[in-house]
Amino acid sequence: MTPAERVEPYVEFARKAFSREATYRFEVISAIGSLVLRVYLLRSVWTALYAQNAAPAGIPLHAMVTYATVALLMSLILEVDGTRAIREKIREGTIATDLMKPINLPLYFFSDGLGMTLFAAFTVVPSLLLALLLVHVDVPSPDALAAFAVAFVLGYLVNFFLNFLMNVIAFWTLETFAIQLMVRWASDLLGGQILPLAFFPGILGQIAQSLPFAAIYSTPLQIYIGTLPRSQWAAAFEAQVMWLGVFALCSYLIWRLAARRVVVQGG
Amino acid sequence: MPIIQTRELRKVFRAVKRYPGAIGALRTLLSREHVDRVAVEGVTMSLEAGELVGYIGPNGAGKSTTIKMLTGILVPTSGEVVVAGLVPYRERKRNARNIGVVFGQRSQLYWDLPLIESFELLRAIYNVPRARYKHNMARFTEMLEMGDFLSTPVRQLSLGQRMRGDFAAAMLHDPQILYLDEPTIGLDVVAKEAIRTFIARENAERGTTVILTTHDLIDVERLCRRILLIDHGRLVYDGEIETLKEQYGTHRTLVVQLTEPQDVSIDGTELVSREGNVVRLRFDRRETSADQLIRRVAEKYSITDVSIEEPELESIIRRIYLEGYEASPPEEPVA
Q: Which residues of B make CB contacts under 8 Å with A?
């Protein structure tokens, strides 16, 4: 098989996932609508809070509103969970049909998720334009923007493996909703999606900073608004890559166990 | 060389022992006790390329478990399995290229997308060359009459249309072997017929080896010469349907239509039923020949029509499920 032939199925998975997502027009509109509403609410909340305290943790209001808006736009992409299909396929037993195909299943879920993500990325543009009617978003220097992009891609991969791990647990428990809710909540809060980690008091901030969740939202966002000095970018990337390695390894190991369980227990 | 071969294939599932009730559920959660359930017990079979065999048995007999082992998604507890020269569970992906699978109960098509897009995806998955893909698509579209709904989203298809799509999907990469699991379940008569014709044609024209798992014995009678009968995980019969009928069908039923309702009594026969002026008489074809019998009936009574009913495969199979298989079965009880 040529490399092109090896890659082709996965490109096609991504394309089909993209088209599939496009069939849900109502969901797209409601996702954009809800995002714009949240941007508006966050702007109001932060403006009110800042009226009491000029610049907590050294982040001025405009930077805070930028942070919150960019975090919401990121969530449009990061909340896409391609690996959710694993859980559904296990519960419905259709995973057996997939195993009867000459494909690598984790790679299938990744490319399916990637297709969904690419579609979600398209919704970012109209969302941003609408958000700009309500708020002003700071634009950092080109190199900070590039660094943000790198951090975002790394964070995306960490997020993928985190989701993958959560969903593969379904091989043992069938239902993973409670675990996922907990992890999602932890990753949103401790990852800095809702609040910058700089606002967390003392030891709590340090703990949050050293958890893997920070790699998903906090690192790219801090680069974006400039609270992470240029001199610390390399170290931040390193931490992201480290978490990526850890999660990828865990995913690989747990998938091998899971796959063995399927072939031994019959799915 | 056979294309599918198993020797003493065995599969035992191990499950946590479950206790009933709410307290029991807690006990189940903490318990380390296991129960073993034997799903397949020493199945040995050998299929030549191009055969079309029915693999039948009651629910829970071990049919699906066998198929899962043949497709490589289940590892046998013991025994050997070789499919087209590969050990399926060791080379799942390579084996997958040799096989096509259709499940009547679940579709492999993309639910939200037009049917044609599922075919394009499968073309990519199996790396079917473009020319081959076009050729196959043209054939399937014609044979399965899919032209009208190729661009319809799968969720909007009728069951019959969806099944036709699933068959095309399974055969798109020219698999050597086709596994069918209840492929006609829930279909109307016309759709069933279309599917049967397709299976027969693919088998005859392309030499595809087919294993047909079904509860619909009409499918089996129409398509297969050979059947494998499995019960409680054991292969109880492996041979031609005709042989089975010979062994079990020692009795025939003579259906006599009389000009007027009356009692009928003929030596060497047994009255099965009498409804209006239709009388059913059972006889042993080893002792009485049909033409003798008809002559005797015609001499004694005024009749308008006669016909002979053979035992259906279904009643034979039912008997085997209930009593187990024996090469020379005892006298058939009166139904």
A: 13-14, 65, 68, 71-75, 89, 92-94, 96-97, 99, 101, 103, 106, 108, 110, 112-113, 117, 120-121, 124-127, 153
Domain with B216, as residue range(s), is 49-244
Q: Per the CB < 8 Å rule, is A103 touching B65?
A: no
Give the helix/strand (H/E) hosting A22.
helix A3-22
Q: From start to end of chain B, where are the E strands?
A: 4-16, 34-47, 52-56, 78-83, 99-103, 177-181, 209-213, 226-231, 234-240, 251-258, 269-275, 278-284, 303-309
The structure tokens listed for A173 are 């428990």
Instruction: For B47, list phi and psi in degrees, rounded to 5.
Output: -120, 135
In a domain, B20, yes or no: no
Positive or negative torsion for Cα B237, B243, B244, B248: negative
From first to last of its 335 residues, chain B has per-residue pLDDT tens of 899 999 999 999 877 777 777 777 777 777 777 888 899 999 999 999 999 999 998 888 899 899 999 999 888 999 999 999 999 999 999 999 999 999 988 888 988 899 999 999 999 999 999 999 999 999 999 999 999 999 999 999 999 999 999 999 999 999 999 999 999 999 999 889 999 999 999 999 999 999 999 888 889 999 999 999 999 999 999 999 888 888 877 788 888 888 888 888 888 888 888 888 888 888 887 888 888 888 888 888 888 888 888 777 888 888 888 887 777 666 655 54
Domain identity same for B193 and B264: no
Domain-embedded: residue B335: no
Domain boundaries, chain A: 3-265
- Contact between B74 and A9 using a beta-carbon 8 Å cutoff: no
Contact A266 B112 (CB under 8 A): no
Tell me which of A8, A95, A100 to substitute to probe the interface with B (most B C-beta atoms closer than 10 Å).
A100
Are B278 and B212 found together in one domain? no
**Nearest residue to B117 (alpha-carbon basis) of B145, B160, B71, B155:** B155
Interface test with B, best of A19, A95, A101, A257 (most B CBs within 10 A): A101
Are both B266 and B132 inside the same structural domain? no
Are B95 and B210 in the same domain? yes
Is the domain of B203 the same as that of B95?
yes
The answer to whether residue B19 sits within a structural domain is no
Cβ distance A267 to B92 less than 8 Å, yes or no, reads no
Residue of B nearest to A18 (CA): B113
Q: Which of B65, B73, B127 is nearest residue A99 as measured by Cβ atoms?
A: B73
How many structural domains comprise chain B?
Answer: 2
Residues B154 and B261 grouped into a single domain: no
E strands in A155-229 = none
Task: State the maximum Cα–Cα separation within chain B, in Å, rounded to a whole number.
Answer: 78
ipTM: 0.81
Same domain, B143 and B123: yes
Q: Tell whether B208 and B150 lie within a shared domain.
A: yes
